[in-house]
Every structure is written in C-alpha cells, then in structure tokens.
Amino acid sequence: MQLNRSPTLLLRLSLVAALVHGQYIIESSSFGHGDRISSNRLGIPHWHISADGQTPPQLLSDKIVLTPPYPGNRRGAVWAETSVPQSEWTADLEFRATGGDRGGGNLQIWYTKEGRPRAETPSIYTTAAFDGLALVVDMYGGRGGSIRGFMNDGTTDYKSHHAVDSLAFGHCDFSYRNLGRPSRIQVRQLAEFFGVSVDGKQCFSSDKIKLPAGYYFGISAASADTPDSFEVYKFVTSTAPGVTRELPNRDPPSQPPPPASNPGSPANDQSSRHTSSDAQFAVRFTDLQNRLERLSQSLDNVFREVQQLASKSESRHQDLSHKGMPNEQLSAMDKRIQSIESTLQGHTGQFSNIQSSLKDSHSTLNQGLTEHMTHIISTKTPKMSSFIIVVIVFQMLLAGSYVLYKRRRANGPKKYL
C-alpha cells in the first residue's frame, strides 16, 4: 500500500508546485533527471566531457565516472555548453565517492563566467584566475570530509597563491566517502540569499553573495595516488520559485484596420469595448498556456521519477532472486529437518525412561550415602570413657616416674665439702 501511495503523493506535490510556484528545469544546464544520461553513451547533450588525456571519464546509462577506482592520479570533468539565463536558480548534484581506507581526491562544482577553461580538468589548487564560484569537496582538515566555498572576481591566481585554503568564505563537515548511497549537494541563489546544503541539512549561507546570470556550470574531479572514484548521477538546474519560462517572441496576427468613425459615436464605443475584452482574453489565454506548459513538464518529471523507482525496484527484486537459495536446496533442507523431527519424536519414550532412571539413581544415592555416613560417624568415633581412661593412665605414669626419681636421688651417695 505504501508503494502505491508514493507516486500519487509525488504527483500531487508536483502539480501544486507547478501551479503555485512555477518552477521548471533548465534543460541545457542539467543531465541525469531523465531515464538515461546518454542514449548512445558517447556524450551528454549540451555538455562537454573532458579528461587529462590518459583515461577518459566512463559514461554509463545512469552515471558518469569522472575518476576510476584504478589507477590513481586521474582527472575528469563535464562543462555546460550553455550559460544559465536566470539570476535566481537552484542546482542539485547527486554523486558518490568510494575508495580505500586512505583514499584521496577532490570534487569541484564550478559556476564561472568563462565556462570551460583552458585546463579543462582543473582543481582548486591548480586553476588559474577565474570569475565566479567554486565548491570543493575533499578530506581537508582530517575530520572525515568537508565542503568549502571559494569566490573569485578574476584577479586572484589560485595556482600561484601561497595559501589557497585561507581563501574559503564558508565550510562545513561533510562525510561523503563509502556511504553506499549517493550524496546530495544543493546550491541555491535567490534574490537576497545564497545557501549550500548537503543531504538536506544547511551547510553555510550568506545574504551578501549575488551571482549574476549568464555563467556556466561545471563539475571536475581529481584522484590521488590511492584514488577515490567519483561518480556523478545527476546535475539538475531549475529556476527559483515564481520564475516563469521565457517564451519566444511571437508577432501578433495581422488584422485589418478598423473602419474610421467619429469620436463619441456608438460604433467607436463598441469597438473600444471589443478591443479591451480581446486584450483581457489574450492575457488570460497566455497565462493559461503557461500554466498548462508547466503542468505538462511537471507530469513528465513525475513519470520519469516513477519509472526510475519501478526500474530500481525490479532490479533489486532480480538481485535478491538471483542471490537467494535455489528451490531444490530449500526442499532438501526441509526434508532433512522433517526426518530429524520424526526421529526425535520416536525416541521421546526412551528419553523419558532415561530421565526417570536418572532421578531414581540420584535419590537412591543420596539416601544411601547419608545413612552410610551416619553409621560411620556413630561407630568409628572414639568414646568419652576411653579418652578419660587414657588421660588417667598417662597421669599415673607421670606420678610413678616422679616417685622413682625421688627415691634414687635420696639413696644416692652424698658429697660434702
């Protein structure tokens, strides 16, 4: 029941968002929000893929691998070929980083005026002067990962700067490695607000940053000797809430000029009323057309999300069915368990007889041992009269010895001086 409710909820939310806020995706600055990133695995529409000349990024149907798991010291990047026409936007990035315990590397999100630079796979430490924004995800500070923001107006050469890390205007801790799931970074630029959030939590923000329109997005990654593999699943740029789609200019249909009439005549008044009603109807029709277009786009996005959820659920079901135990082994194990149960049930009477025999032996042993010990104590213990006789005899022997000693001493020769 829960799975059936989720698409309906997504549909309602998308419809409400489309009708109330009017937010839509900028297709020329986005990828990965549809069924596939690339239909032919040769390129991404409206994006340029760059590499360091050794190993090009691997483009799959659902992700692009900027740096491979092996070997290390690789660079990869994707750059938008079309600038963002709006000054208020939201950019969402989903990526995953995997590697060894001591793996290293960094991921950059660029929003620059010049777009794709000469060094097409730059990092924040190797780039020259640029005009725009750079967000860096790496293991800086040794705290398990962080994300930092850098701004430049084209006057600072980061490649030759002696302390690039000190130029960051905002940062927060971000554990992104080996999570087993994609991580999400969202960048928002509104009229009076700029903010960066990671996995739905606010990272840093400022009301003093205003990025202009007409800049280009880019994503680059670099790996170390012990590499981290950076995989990008999607990058979606959408307009801010309340921004409508820019439609191409259309010339109004040519109409014959109205017949000349005298001012104040009834025909002139009737023509003015018709002109006013036609203008209002045209405005309402244009607004309705824009709403229908946004509704259609939202429905397409919802259907794509539902298809992705269905494909993921099917793939998980197939994986579980392949990894599970075959039916023959399950039946054989069930038969063995049943035979063991039947054998145990057949020996239940023998177990009862053994238990009763053990109880009888235990009670007989306890009773016989008690009686035997009592008999030994009563018969083998010396009596008090025997002890008294022994004491008296011993005293008499002592007294006789003393008397004999006195007599010998009295009868012995005496010496006089």
Structural notes for this entry:
The chain has 417 residues and is α+β, with helices and mostly antiparallel strands. It has helices spanning 2-20, 266-323, 327-346, 348-380, 384-411; strands spanning 47-51, 58-59, 64-67, 75-80, 89-99, 105-112, 131-138, 146-153, 168-173, 183-189, 194-198, 201-206, 216-223, 228-239. It has a 7-stranded antiparallel β-sheet, with no helix packed on it. Strands 2-3-14-5-10-11-12 form a 7-stranded antiparallel β-sheet, with no helix packed on it. A hairpin with a 4-residue loop joins strand 2 and strand 3. Helix 1 (2-20) runs antiparallel to helix 2. The chain is elongated.
Helicity level: 25-40%
Query: Into which percentage range does the β-strand content fall?
Result: 15-25%
Give start-end ranges of low-pLDDT stretches: 1-8, 246-261
Q: N-to-C SSE series?
A: HEEEEEEEEEEEEEEHHHH
Largest sheet: 7 strands, antiparallel
Distance between the termini: 134 Å
Radius of gyration: 47 Å
Task: Label the structural class.
Answer: alpha+beta
H/I helix tally = 5
Number of strands: 14
What coarse outline follows from CA principal-axis ratios?
elongated
The strands making up the biggest β-sheet line up spatially as: 1-4-13-6-7-8-9
Q: Please, what is the average pLDDT?
A: 82
